[in-house]
């Protein structure tokens, strides 16, 4: 990886690269602009992750190619660059850059029904469930959005008037914050912002690691 001292932010070219890719998502366009991707997107992201590795662990940089085998959308490239710390654990920290700017957060994407069942059991239990609601309330107060696939009805086995029914509807749970594209995105301050975002979601990830675990 690039050393952390080299991280100086995401240049404006990173956002304009993805804005243009959204309009012309073809292999020919990508190959003609691959040097921009390497210089303005990939290398800064690797440097950012290097700066976070000591505290949070090694990250996985996602491939820019989309898996189109089972998708009606055959556009070949993702319109954002994402990275994940915690692959294979069921719980992770996440960061991405796109035409919209910077996003960071954490949580878990369900790997199967057993994982969702453990999650709901912990939400149902008074002690762990109340603790999670406090964590989510704190994150919302810090401008994080609570996301994740949910059922629209009441999950089987739970009462519709359960005090934590909205959280129980989740099959998976993430908290993410969108920072947009402020001027500091092109500076080293971005590393501090992502670090603070990951520290903010650490209580959520710790709760999930304790009560949900890997699939």
Describe the structure in your own words.
The protein has helices spanning 12-23, 27-32, 34-56, 113-124, 126-141, 165-168, 189-211; strands at 59-61, 80-85, 92-98, 101-108, 145-147, 173-180. The chain is of the alpha+beta class and 215 residues long. It has one domain (4-110, 143-150, 173-208). Strands 1-2-3-4-6-5 form a six-stranded antiparallel beta sheet. α1 packs across α3, α3 (34-56) packs across α7 and α5 (126-141) packs antiparallel against α7 (189-211).
Quick take:
With 215 residues, the protein is an alpha+beta fold. The chain is 45% helix and 16% strand. The chain has a six-stranded antiparallel sheet.
Note the main attributes of this structure.
215 residues; six-stranded antiparallel β-sheet
How many helical elements?
7
So what's the overall shape? globular
Bin the helical content. Answer: 40-55%
Strand content: 15-25%
Rg from C-alpha positions?
A: 19 Å
Topology:
Elements (H helix, E strand, L loop, with lengths): L11 H12 L3 H6 L1 H23 L2 E3 L18 E6 L6 E7 L2 E8 L4 H12 L1 H16 L3 E3 L17 H4 L4 E8 L8 H23 L4
Antiparallel strand pairs: 1-2, 2-3, 3-4, 4-6, 5-6
Helix pairs in contact: 1-3, 3-7, 5-7
